[in-house]
Structures are given as C-alpha cells and as structure tokens.
Amino acid sequence: MRFLSIFALAALVSLSSSTNLHAQGDEGFSRKVRSETQGNERSRQKSLIVMEVDMKPLRLIWVDTPNPQTGELEPKMYIYLCYRAINRPMTAPSVRETEPQNLIDPEPSPPYFIPEFTLVTEDTPEKRAVTDQVLPHVQEAINQKERRKFKNSITIVGPVPPATEEEPNDQNALFGVAIFPGIDPAVDRFTVYMSGFSNGYRTVDGPDGEPILERKTIKQEFWRPGDQFDPESPEFRFQGDPQWIYRPDAPLAEE
Q1: Which listed residue, of 48, 84, 190, 246, carries a Cα 20 to 30 Å from 34's Cα?
Q2: Whole-prediction pTM
Q3: What is the pLDDT of residues 180-208, one digit of tens each?
C-alpha cells in the first residue's frame, strides 16, 4: 500500500514537472503561424520560402526616454511584439510546375531575412499606420523583462537559416522583437502586418492598369479589454487566427 502511494506521488510529480517544462519551453509564444503554401505559389517561385512563426501577444512597456526638448528622462509607453521564426522545408514543385511566372527581378541567392512590421490602428476615425522602430534602450528593457536576448529588425538581418524539420527545440530559430512608439493609450484594436517571413510575391493589375507588386505577408489582429483609463493593462489578446495574405508594399502612409 505504501509502495503504491509512493508510486502515485512520484507519477504525479513527474507529470507536474513535465507540464512545467512544457509551459516554460514555449516561453509565452502562444500563437503559431504555420508555413503554408499553395501549388500556384510554388509554380511562380522555385525558391519559395515560407517560415513558421511563433508570436507572443502584443505587450506594452513603459521606459524612461529622454525628452527631445528638455533632455530629461520621462516615462514613455511602447507596444512591442516578440517572435520566433524558423525556416521549414518546402514541398518540391511537381513536373508541371517547373518555370517561375514572376520575372520582375532575379531572386536573390541566398535569400535574406529582412523583417518589416506595420501596426495599423483599427478603432480610430482615421486608420494610422506605425512602422517598427529600432530603439536600443527600449529593446534592452524588453530583453530584461522577457528574459531573452531578442534582436531588432536591423541586427536580425542575414541569410535565411537552413530549413529545419519540425522538432521540439529552437535549432536555427531566429528571435526578434518589433517596437512601436507613439501609440495613443486610448486605442485598443490593432492589426499587425509582418513581411519578410516569406519571399513570396505576385503581380496584379492596378487601377491604372500598371502592375502592382504584392508580398506574402502575415496578418494578425489584436484587441485589449481596457481603455485610456487603464493603460497599465500589460497585454493584448489575439483576435482571430493569423492569415497569410498578399499585400502591397505600402498601402497606407506609414510613420
């Protein structure tokens, strides 16, 4: 009887430890964007890359920042997005999918990872687009808070890592953070567009008949159950699932 009790306790401890390790292992990356392609995409580009991306929810942080007029440090709010990107193998195109259709420019070899982020406000009279900024003092505060060294959108630039089969580890993973300054605390709904995680592109006819280049982009919506009177609400929630879409390079006037 005592043996059974000890065995049951050991099993419970083991299960608890395994669960905790799993919880710690994901580090809060609670939303996965799968590496997804369609046959016509692979026919357009032989060297198509579509990375798998894990995201944490949008979060905010207050960081002492020099006032440009007085030079004095003042607390300023920033919104940031932490991500992990891994290159996954692509299915080889069939015999009928041998010639690429996009012939605008030769594709770079090897392809480079150059991420770009745009945050668009959704609950304002006029939508506002804010691009990711490189702010070393904010990045340092985020790294301390998140307990990981995330790279910014400049220092993370480099050749796309070799394709890695899906494994429960971070082999060849890239860890980065996008930082958005100057967001009105009253805004609670955003859409974030993330490009550079795929080299996929296509051309479509514009209103004037001229071709428009569109890039394969991740779209994810967020919302926060707070308001301007509760700006300390530290985290935004995912709204809906992430989507791979094709989007023009600069559809809005970005800041």
Answers
A1: 190
A2: 0.81
A3: 999 988 888 999 999 999 999 988 888 88
